[in-house]
Batch of 4 targets.
Target 1
Amino acid sequence: MADVTFGLSAETLNDIVRNVHKQLYPKHFRDSKKIERGGVKGELSWDAASPPVLVLKEEGNAIGHDAVDFPEGTLPEGVAQRILDVYQGRSFEVLLENVSLVLKLDNTATPQPVTAKITVVAVIDISGNRLAIKPLSAKVSTGDPNDDAFYNGAVVPAVLEALGDVLGSIKLPALEFEGIHLTTPNALVSDNVLVCQANLAGRPVPPQPLRGHWPPDPFFVLLGPDAVRAAVELTAKHLEGREFSDKGEKGFGIGTGYYEGRVTIRNVRSSGQVSSNLEADVTATINGNGGAGIKFPLNKSIDGHFDIVAHPDPTATVRLSLHGTELSGVVSGLSNFEVKLENHRGDFGDGVLVWAANSLSGYITSKVREGVLGKTFSLYQVPAVHVSTEGVHLEVAPTGLALQKSSSGLLVITGNVAIASVNVTYALA
C-alpha cells in the first residue's frame, strides 16, 4: 500500500462533469460541419444536450485493438500492444446519451433528428499534479449499421476534440503534507472510483494501485503508517532542541553546596502506528550534563561533573482528531521516566550528589511534563480539488469529514464534497 492514497467516486467525478457541461453548453457540445455523403454535399449537426457520463469499471480497463482506432489502423507488430499496456488500469468509458444528429443534404428537406449514443474510450493521464481525461476513440450507435459507419467517420473526430478540450484539466490536490514531499502520483480506475497514490519522496513511485475495496464515500484520503510517522515527527520537531536548565545552592556544614544542570530534547521520533482509539506515539531522548560541589571560604571549592540522562526515553501519546478539514494531534499522555546522574567525574561528597540528583530530577521531570502535555499541533490539511477548463473554474471542497482507522492499519479520512464556482486567480493558485 502506498503512503498516501486519494480517491474520488465516480459520482463525484460526474458531478464535476455535470457542472462543467452546465456552464459550457452549448459550446463544445453543439456543432456542425460540411460533409459529403454518396456524392451529395450537405451539413451534419450534432447536439449533446445531456452531460457526458463517466463509467468507471475495472472491466472497462480491457482496451482492445477493436476499441481503439489507431492512426491509419495499423502499427508495427507489438507497438499497439505496448501502447495499450501503458493505459492498463487507467481506461474507462465516457457515454454521451441522446445525442441529436441532423444530416441535411443539399436540395433536400431537413430530416428529423436521429438520436444516437456515443461511447468514448478514454484514459486518465497525470502530469505533475494535473489530471487529464484523454479520449482515445469513440463509436456512434444509432441502431442502423449503415448510418453508424457514416457517423463514425463524420462525428467521432469532432467529439474526441470537444471532449479533450472540456475534460482536459483537473488540478489534483498536492499530495503532500506541509514540508513533506511525495513522489509523482500514480492513478487507477477501479469500480466506481478514481484512485491516486504517492509515496514519501525518495521512494519509488507507487506501482499501479492495487484494485480492492475502496471506501464508498464521494471523497477519501488514506494515510499509511510511514505518512503518519513523517507528519507526526515533523510537527513534533518544535520540541527538538528544547532545553531545560536548573541550579541551586544549600548550606552544607562549613561550606555551601551548589548544583547546576542542563538537558536537551533530542531525536524526536514516531513509529507512525495508530491505535484503534486513534492514538499515535512520539518518543524523544533527553540528556545533558551538569556539575555540583561545595564552595568554601577564600574562594576554595571541591567540584565534580556528571551526565544527566532520562531513563527510559519518554513517550508521549498523541490523540488524533479531525476538526473541519484539519487533522491535528494533542498530547494526551506521557510515559513515566526517571532522570539520573551518570558518569560522575571529580569530588563532590555523597550528600551533595544526592541533593543535586533529587533536585534536578524533580525539576526536569515536572518541566518536561508541563512543556509537553496538552500541546496541540496540526498534522495535515485535507485539500480541495480544483478544476479549470475552458473558462470554467470549480472548487471541489471536502465536507463532513470523518476519521477512523482501518483493519489494515491505515488512517482513513472520508466525507462528502461541495462543488462551487470560484474566481480564476483562486482556481489556478
Note: The CA atoms of residues 343 and 399 lie 57 Å apart.
Target 2
Amino acid sequence: MKRKKLLQKIDALDQKLKLRTEDIHGLAQNTHNTFKKVPLVWLISVGAAAGALMAIMGPTSLYTMGLTGSRLFPMTSKAFNLGKQFGAGE
C-alpha cells in the first residue's frame, strides 16, 4: 500500500511539473516574440550601455541600485496612477 501511495504522489508531482513546464515554455515563447519586435540596433545599444555601466560602476553598486529601484517601483507606479486620476499629464 505504501508503494502505491508513493507512486501516486510521484505521478501527481509529475503532472504538476508538466503544467509548470508548459507555462514556462509559453512565457519563453512570448518573450521571444516580443524581442523579435524590438529592432536589433536597440537591443545591441542597450546591451552595450549596460555593459559599460557595469564596468564603470561595478556589480555591487548596480545590484544596490536595482534593489532600490525594485522597492521604489510600486510607489512610483501608484503615484503615476494617482496623477492620471487627477488629470495630470494631459
Note: Residues 2-37 form the longest helix (36 residues).
Target 3
Amino acid sequence: MQTDSARDDGNEFWEVIQTAKPNVQIEFDGKNEGYSPRRYTLTFNQRKCTVQRIATFWQDKYSFRVEFCFNNQIQATDHTFLGNTTTNAIIDWLSESTLQELYRKYEFVDRHKRALETILQTVPELARYANIASNEKVYMLIEDTSGAFNQFSSINRIVDIQTLGNDPPVNIDFYWDGCRIFCIATEDNYLLAHAIKAWICENAPPSKLIANFPFFTTNTIAEYYELGKGIEGEFINSWDQMETYFSDPQSILNYSEKAARFIRMLRAKGYDHYFRAGQVVTSFRLSRSRRHGLRNDQPYIALDFQSDYIAIGAHFPHKIQFHFKQLLRKNLFNLNGLFRKRQFSLKNYEYTSELENLLQELMTYPID
C-alpha cells in the first residue's frame, strides 16, 4: 500500500516527470488560474500515460485515474493518489518497463483488476454472476467517477466491489433485497472469493459469514434479515443512526441532548419497530417508507426541535390518493389539496395524546 506523502491536487507533478524524463512530451487540459490541470498526457515513443483528476475528493486528497498505454491501447489502469510511488510507476512505464514489472513493483497498478482475477480464479463459478466477457475488461464492467466498480448478483443478493485511491484493494458491500447488510474492507482476496460464493451462490445466512470469515461482524440489520424481519431491522437501524446524530454535542443543535432524550422516549414506546427515521437538518422525520428517502406522495410526521418546544407537522395524503398513488403519480402536477396537513407544538418537550394519536394514524398506512 502506498504510504508516501501524496500531492493532493497534482501541482508540480509534471515538473517531476519532466526532470526525470526530459524528452517526454507533456500535455495538460483543464488548467485554470490557481489550480492544477485536470488531465495530463505524457508520451514517449510508443508509450503513453494519462492522469485524470477525478471529481471525488477523498480523505483530504483528490483521486486520480492513471492509464498506462502502448500504441494508444490501454494496458493497465486504476485509481490512486499522486505521490512518489505513482510518479515512479509512470516514469518506469515510459522507460520501457513491462507490465509484469509494474505489477511486481507497484501495488496500485491494475489493483482492482488483479483482485477480481484472483476472486475468479479461486471460485470460477462466480463468473456466471458477474457477466465478465474477458479478464482484460474485468475492471470496466461498471465504472463511475468515484472509482472502479464491479458487481456480482443473484436473484436477491448483490456484492459490490469498489476501490478508490489507496484504501485497501477492495471495499465490499453485501446486499440482500436491496438493503446493505455488510460493508467490509479486506486485502485477503482468497477469503473474499469464498465469502462471495457463500453469499451469492449458496444464499448463506449472515450468521454463517460472521462465523466463517474474520472481516464480518454482527449488526442489527443482519440479525433481523436472518429472522425474516428485514424491514423492521432497517427501521431500528435508522433510529440508531438518528439517535447518534441528534446526540452529537457538536451538532448544530444547542439542545441536542433534549432532542436525543425525546427520541429515546419514542423508542421506549416501540415506535422504532414501525417507522423509518430520518432527518432534514434539525427536522426529525418518521415515515412508513420501505426505502431511505421520501417521495412527495408518502405520509410522514416532522418533529422540528426548538429550544423549549417541538414543532410538529403532519403530511398525510388522503386515503383515496394514497391507494391510487400509482395512477395519480402520472398526473400530480399540483399537490395542493391532496394532503391533510396538521401543525401543533409540544411545549417543554412534553409527549401528548395529540402526538400519540398522530403516530397511531401514521401506523395505519402500509409500508411503501
Note: The longest strand covers residues 47-58.
Target 4
Amino acid sequence: MLEPFNECSMKTIRIFIFILPVLFSSFAKLQAQDKDNSKINNFKLGLEAGFNSYWGEVAKPEHVRENYSSPYSYSFHILPTQSAMVYHLGFKPEYFFLRNRFGISAGLRVSRFSSAFESGNSYPVMWLLRQEDIHTEYVRIRSITQNSYYVGIPLEIRFFPNRREFRFQHYLKLGVALNCHVHTKYKTVFYDEHMHIHAGTVEAQLGKPYSFNSYIYPAIGFKIGRSPSPWVNLEIYCSALITPRTISFMKNGAGVGCQFSVQLPVGKSAPVGSSK
C-alpha cells in the first residue's frame, strides 16, 4: 500500500497546478499575437510511456562487510558498477510556435526507479545487523531490491530541422524531469530463509532516497503522422542524473532510454513549417 504523499510531493503537485495555467496563458498570448495563426489551434495532447537504463558507481551500504572471518570459509566482493531501471507513464500538452517548428511542453509523470544490490559472485552478502559491546550479529543476504515511486513534471522543448512537414520526420528534443519521492518498497532475499524476520531492520538501516531528484535528457525522435491527424512519436535519448542519491545503491549515473508517445490534436492544426 502506498504511503501518503509527503510534503515534497505535495509541493510538486502545487507547482504543477501553478505551472500549467501559466504556460497555457503564455501560449494563448503568443497565439493571439501571431496574426497568421490566429485561426489555428497549435496544441497537441500527448500520452507517453518510456524507460531508462542507468549505470554508475556503486554506493556500498555501510552495513556491508566484505572482510569477514568466521567458520564460513568464503569471501565475496562488490561489483564496482551498479545498474538501475526507470519506467514512467504520463501525459503532457504541447504548444507549437515559430511556424510550428518549435514545441514546448510540460505535464505530469509517474516514475518507478528500480535497482538491486547483490554480491559480485555466488556468495551471499554479509550484513551487519547490530553490534553491542563484544556481541556482533550478521545476516547473510542474497539480494536487496529497491523500488521507488515518484510523481514529477517533465519540461521539454522540441525542434523540427525540416521547414516542411512530412509524414515521417525526425526532430531534436531537450528535456528535464523534476520528481518528488512518494514511496519506496524493498524486497530483501536472505540466504537463510528463517532470517526474513529481520527484513524490517535491514530496510530501516538502508533508509530512503532523497525526497527530490531530477535528470536531464537530450533526445532524437521520429514522428509518424501529419497534421491534422494524430502523431506517433518514438524517441531515443541519453540521460544523466543531476541530484545525488537518486538511487540508494548508486552514487551517480548516466544512461540511455526510449520513449513512445501518441499525440492528439486539439482543434485545428497547421503542418510543420506552415503559417496558415
Note: The two ends are 51 Å apart (CA to CA).
